[in-house]
Fold these 4 entries.
Entry 1:
Amino acid sequence: MTFPRLIIGDLVAKVPVIQGGMGIGISLSGLAAAVAEQGGIGVIATAGLGVLDGDNGLGYLESSVKVLRDEIRKAKEATRGVLGVNIMVALTNFADMVKTSIAEGVDVILSGAGLPVDLPKYLKEGAKTKLVPIVSSAKAARIICKRWLTRYNMLPDAFVVEGPLAGGHLGFSPEQIDDPNYSLHKIIPEVVEAVEVFAREKGVKIPVIAAGGIYTGADILEFLRLGAAGVQMGTRFVATHECDADIDFKNAYVNAKEEDLVIIKSPVGLPGRAIRNEFTTSIEKGLKKPFKCPYHCITSCNCSDSPYCIAMALTNAKKGKLKAGFAFAGQNAYRVDRILSVKELMQSLEEEYDKAVEQAGVS
């Protein structure tokens, strides 16, 4: 047995794995190209890109566009595999990031942290970029399908469905995170059923990709059997040599214990999952990290009342300065015990998948 392909329209990934977009520099061209080269879909995250460019005389928004363009081009030079870009709807420069990605010819745009109801309007005639919303419920998927049909006479090329075990910002209330009614196992079949209604009427296929808490090849098989066409994985790719984060950031995953995975209240108004450290503990105690907002990178961030700047905190963490920041991570980050190459990770996932297939007696 081998992995089934992930087919999104006329786009074919040999491996049904999308590498999750991890912002503020965790997944840039290095990681994305490595994943794409191994047959998955490698993803560059756009959140906070302008923070990474240093003092170049440009403003944050202009720097974001410059860095995104550079990263897409570097990734394309490194692989002919499938490349995507993750663009949060909540970004203040959402439109510029989308336009730049399409102009640079990325294969896929994945968009969440809000409903990307107007994403199709940025497509130019002849553009082949696939548009993939990230949702956390069948309701959200139905809203997007209806809006896109009404306004643009088109449907999403695929959906990523992110469950409550994911890392980073979550599309759930704190009460829903541990509620079995909102588990990914329950949500995936609901979204598959909801999307199929629209796909059938339009005569197209809309694959659904499961995300959040998926760790092994056996997990991949489990969600494929629930109706998903593929999976998205973020946490597993952090502890790889090719990940664009500092080694100390990666080691935070390797050294994490299960009790270190905590839900924090983010300044952007959403709960988030992170690895507890001195920084998160001080915030939990009500201590503040005074700052002046130099970026205004997220539309929903109330920087005047925030106890800290999340862009600064995540940038520090990316650079390995974890006393001045923290690492976002999925619920299974504590299971990471070593750093390996993307190739080794992909091979181990496929071996686990094949073993699970054999044990399940799946033909």
Entry 2:
Amino acid sequence: MDLPELKIGPFVAKVPIVQGGMGVGISLSTLAGNVALNGGIGVISAVEIGFNEPDYLKNKMAANLRALRTHIKRARDIAKGGVLGINVMAALNNFEEIVAEGVKQKIDIIFAGAGLPLKLPQFTMGTSTKIVPIVSSGRAAAVICKNWHKNYGIIPDAIVVEGPLAGGHLGFKEEDIKKPKFQLHNLLKDVLETIKPFEEIYKKNIPVIAAGGIFTGKDIAEFMRMGASGVQMATRFVATHECDASEEFKKAYINARQEDVQIIQSPVGMIGRAIKNEFLTDVAAGKKKPIRCLCNCLKPCNPVKAPYCIADALINAQRGNLDKGFAFAGTNVSKIDEIVSVKQLMDQLVSEAKIY
């Protein structure tokens, strides 16, 4: 199929691919800007975005806000008018401050997951910024739609529904990730059905973006035929020259085998999917890593009980110090065998989709 444009409010992506936000520091301005330049929606991860700022450990909030402004500007310079977003976890302790700064910088779209972003409209009403919650069930979509309708008189500008094959933190119980009802095609149907009453009330379409395990142009075409308006992909974009991660991080993706992809228990109280390494093996064996809570970044995290600092581990991994951290990745990471440019990847996906 010829892939259609993806429209979220007034913003139009020529290619209906959203590059998933990957923290800490995996999708920053270089990756997001180049995805937007090549027709997709580029997304900057705002999670502890200031980790490279010289005063990060002493003045975390100022460092994060300063870095967010810098990366939005850099991405805009690269994107040349393309569509840009930021990804903000609702579980962040500084969620509201980051969102407010993104709106101040007139970011096109805010994607918010890892919790229910029920207060998000407070910061965007009357502005040009569009808001897109990330959910893992029709129930979560319903809660958000009902709340926003009741309290703000609006509905989401789009919704991302993320299935259990994604990388990073997952919105599922470990025992549920292989059950048929929780697979992405069924979740997509559930969300599409759930939002119909709200679309009727507001006389407008809510684009639904399918995410989690989408790897090829064929996958994209299949989910578009099921009713998705677009897809979100993250893992594929790590193996690009423009990805903001270190070369060592990218090599972990290239070298990963299927048996290396595992479900882990994160210190934040959620499960996640990551690439097995010595760091994670030690954690699984009960070896508590030397811990310093860098930033008290996530509401569910208890530094006293945590076996390691998730922010510290992810920052180490981003910088290539994988002996002191690990790489989150989607279930299909073992299929990646080379690093390409963002343009090559986007062109390949569009070409593959045309065949199906």
Entry 3:
Amino acid sequence: MKKKIFALSLALILALSLAACGGNDAAPADTQAPADSADAQAPAGSAPAETVKLSVAASPTPHAEILNQCVDILAEQGIELVVNEYSDYVVPNTAVEDGDEDANYFQHVPYLDDFNAERGTHLVSVAGIHVEPMGLYAGKSASLDAIPDGGTVAVPNDATNEGRALLLLEAQGLIKLKDSSNLASTPKDIAENPKNLEFVELEAANVPANLDEVDIAAINSNYALGAGLNPVEDALVIESSDSPYVNVLVVKEGNENNEAVQALVKALQSDAVKDYINNTFGGAVVPAF
């Protein structure tokens, strides 16, 4: 009898022990499921993509205005486009050379080539964007025919834009250059000057402000626009739309294939930007793509 009681007790103890072990095995399985679900939703080590900043130096008009059309386009790609405006033609280049700016957009290739040669910089064009036809504007003389003997002409004083202005004057028969293929011509390179014109050489940005002091002036379209002049309506004569002076996006050599820079090129050469240029500037700025 005692043996039967002992056997029953032992069986009961074993049954309780097995039930307890089974409960311990189930508990971890219940707690593991939520952890697996959480891992599937947020993988270990994941982090939000960082925004890339791209800083570009530009003339206020039209370059900065055109660049601003690309801000939202690039933002969708995680690129913050910062447009910094400059009113001269030197600092935007030195800032890119020194690494203070990632790129610039204000100049044409002849000016860029001359700048590199003169200052030993290492700047390269990555894309052509638009042409700003240079124009001749009336100052004290209302027309080209009205310019008196000894009349004054204001021209930009940087090498390539001065040569460009002289070529425009030559095309109107006002002067004749020794070598019309020399884009760096200066007044010293004039072979014939039938009206004995006197040349006032000024920084390109300062030419519009001196328009009333001279008979006529050669003004770059961006500075004409900034001074409230409409190149198409106000210029006495303007370069043709096939001008070789295409304005380009520029970076320091070695940065041509930077992903953010290439994204900006694509945005600048998009149909949206082309439409903006055509609709906003009415021929004073011409897309080159």
Entry 4:
Amino acid sequence: MKRKILFLFVVLAMLLSACGGQPAQDIDAIVQATFQALTAQAPAATPVAQTGSISGELSYPSEGIPPLLVVAFNTTTGHYYWVQTAQNQSTYQIDNLPVGKYTVFAYALPDGKLVGAYDQFYVCGLHQGCNDLSLIEVDVVAGAITPNINPGDWYGDPTQWPPMPNDPSIPNLGVGGESVGTGGIAGQLSYPSSFIPAMMVVAFDVNSQSYQYVLTNENSSTYQIDGLAPGTYFVVAYPSDNSSYPGGYSQAVPCGLLATCTDHNLIPVEVKSGEVAQGINPGDFYAPPGTFPAAPAP
């Protein structure tokens, strides 16, 4: 930018010396034309993102909700995008969806034999008088989250819906040879006590309000969150018996959690397609209250 301004002054000086006694309005016109030429050479605006998200609530015809594979099928390309949820997780969100129309299903893991659909029967209220069983196509708009897409019709014939794609243990799912990659985050758990309580370990997307979590048992010393879309995350562990005192993966962790480690800022964790980020240990239970995000509703 400095070089452009210097160049502009050089051009003006040459014009002034060349124009001699020409009227001032002619010089003004030349200067204006020079500014217009520089403006025309300005770089083009950054393209607008062409992806959006789908979110909603989860249900199941039982007392609890099993782990689910929630899948959004693009009705034009046939490609599908998915997120895996934990036991009794009541919400979901699928990010990085190309703009278009989708149908949404929830498959009960591990085998996917029971399927919940987002269709007119669910929207009608799942009553006997609801006779329309057609699927609802969901519009995904660039830069927006399409909410309230709840795949809750578990009462239809599972054979009428698409089968669960591949094996959910495979990190990449796709159609036609094009995969939709996800990654994971893993690490060790600790607690300033003689035991490690059961925890909810949460990965918060730093660029949106979405998150995913995994529930661990008492004295579990490790965790792993799978099915994460490529991106950047903060990781926080919430003890089930006292979630108001969470442990974060902060700068204090690699510092050694010593009394001199006073930087409690969360460390951004990069998740790449097909890879698991290792050594992400949410062990900073010494940060001042309110330093880390509040525990999300499970």
